[in-house]
Amino acid sequence: MATYKFPQFNLEIIDPIVNVEKVNDSILYQVCSADVILTTPSAVFGITFSGFSYDTTWDDQDIVDWVNNVELPQYEVE
Hints:
alpha+beta
């Protein structure tokens, strides 16, 4: 069970379902941001992560992995 605390929300988000809803890609700078929805039985939260960079291309799973393995762990509460 994962618990997250984001500075913009004054609460802990416990064991959310995580969905990457939208990716914004700057082809010129080869960097992406991702709009992520965290859903719990009692609430829905929207988060935007930015800073995914790439050399030539990316696929959907690259973004999902980046969200789950790089971005979300930064906000995990132990």
